[in-house]
Amino acid sequence: MPADQDASGETQAHRLHNAVERGREDVSGLGERWLDAFVRIEDHAAAGGGVARLMVDAGLIVIVAPVSPFRADREHARSLFEPGEFHEISVDAPLATCEARDRKCLYIRAQRGELRNVTGIGSPYEPPGQPELRLDSATHSPEQCVDGVIGLLDALDAR
Predict the structure, then answer these.
(1) In the beta sheet, which residues pair with residue 92?
(2) CA 86/CA 34 separation, integer angstroms
(3) Is 8 annotated in the active site?
């Protein structure tokens, strides 16, 4: 049995994926109704940080994945937490990769001028300076990226 597999054959990656999916179901109404009420992308990052703060206060481990292209917004989210409570994970992909994965055709629409302020087209992206973990999703599979997150969590747990 591989080291990352339990007796049932479930891998760490599967367990993390399943936990994320359960979390997505638990807050689906929040994501669809509440966060979508914010017009500015900066508000999404602030709202996600605020909700995460409440959940951490309740004793939960929280993974938040907002589109957050601006350094100042990510730093604001970090400021809501005590040192050691906030760990930034940057999931990198070049613009061409983002365009190839775009099922909603947002990048095509932005290039035609139909949408404004799409990150990388009409709005800048400011990469994080020193994230605790940087994942290159263009060259690593989703499973490898999950392994990176699990590795970070394991390292934090070992402290």
Answers:
(1) 136
(2) 23
(3) no
Q: How far is CA 146 from CA 3, 9, 50, 143, in A?
A: 15, 17, 24, 5
Q: Tell me which of 8, 28, 68, 123 is the catalytic residue.
A: 68
pLDDT digits (tens, 9 = 90+) for 80-116: 999 989 999 999 999 999 999 999 998 999 999 998 8
Asked if 149 and 13 count as a contact pair (C-beta separation under 8 A), the reply is no
**Neighbour-count burial for 50-82, b at 16+ CB within 10 Å, e otherwise:** ebbbeebeeeeebebebebbbeebbebbeeeee
Tokens representing 113 are 């001028």
pTM over 0.85: no
What does the block give as tokens for 94? 């070049």
**Alpha carbon distance 4, 12 (integer Å):** 6
- Separation between Cα atoms, residue 120 and residue 123, nearest integer Å: 6
**Nearest to 13, CA basis, from 156, 148, 154:** 148
pLDDT at position 27 is 46
Q: Which residues of the chain have pLDDT under 70?
A: 1-44
Residue-level pLDDT at 41: 63
